[in-house]
Amino acid sequence: ADFDAKKKRKVAEIYQALNSDPIDVAALRRMAISEGGLLTDEIRCKVWPKLLSVNTDDLPPLPGKELREDNKDYQQVLLDVRRSLRRFPPGMPDDQREGLQEELIDIILHVLKRNPQLHYYQGYHDIVVTFLLVVGDRLATALVEKLSTHHLRDFMDPTMDNTKHILSYLMPIIDQVNPEVHDFMQSAEVGTIFALSWLITWFGHVLSDFRHVVRLYDFFLACHPLMPIYFAAVIVLHRQQEVLECECDMASVHHLLSQIPQDLPYESLISKAGDLFVQFPPSELAKEAAQQQAERTAASTFKDFELASVQQRPDTVLRQRFRERLRGEERLRGEERTKSILTKPRTNRFVKLAVMGLTVALGAAALAVVKSALEWAPKFELQIFP
What we know:
The chain is globular. The protein has 22 helices and no strands. Helix 5 packs across helix 6. It is mainly α. It is 60% helix and 0% strand. The protein has 2 domains: 1-155, Helicase, Ruva Protein, domain 3; 160-311, Ypt/Rab-GAP domain of gyp1p, domain 3 (Cyclin A, domain 1). It holds the Pfam family RabGAP-TBC. InterPro entries: Rab-GAP-TBC_dom, Rab-GAP_TBC_sf, TBC20/Gyp8-like.
């Protein structure tokens, strides 16, 4: 009864935000982040366009079949879509699924034709099919196009340089929370490739339950485009005991981490990912994350990232000495270390948030995460991307 009451209250708050004039996008972002997300696909059809600044009154016409003629990506898209059977609801009639697969191909080719600067990658269809199943082909086409030219743009470059750059944030986040797990993974030389499919499909390819996929999409659509890498980090940290008990070699650790559990505590992990973003924003991780400048990534459009984009990786020897000195002063392991770091006010920003009473229980320090997203979202209309 309590759950039903909370759900009804949240639905009422979502529709209140939708019906306000102007629409309260900040409230919609908070609803998408907080426990349960947007609750139903009916609500997602109304809210997802608002989160992406898509005008539903001016949708593009459905693409025609001529898109497939002489299209350099058609054969690869066709192969990937044919392999996507498990992304459709079990028990769906074959003719209905085949019809949706045809629509999926057309949406992908339409976006690529209208945006020749974008390059198809394997896994892109896992994101597109999620939108198709939730909102239908016409609205999905508009949402996917906006998403592809913004949040996903770095994955759609001619090379994987920017994707590797985003992956390079994973280890610094883990290092901030649990240096022991970080150092173990470094010793195993496992790298970050195990998280590649998580990142470029927004976990759509690796999670079997569609409810969990759309819950994560609610979260990611409302947040900074680097949020999926923070979520990847909290999955690794959630499994820290398994990691530390694993053989310390690349093959063993890679095999363990690449097999993502299906029974993750999603709401708890979403809250922790939001809290880590607040505690350790991209600006604080940038110098650790990459040697290259971040001028061409979607993340660089955020103010805090821009401030740090010119900083280079510090000398690794000095960094190691600094870390050893810190460990000499305080050695916290395992769960105690994780619990401490998530509650300890490590930065001035986090102290201010604590004073405001924002905690994990309130949904991923939602106000701060929303503020970061809103700083970027208005730029959708400024066409800041080439």
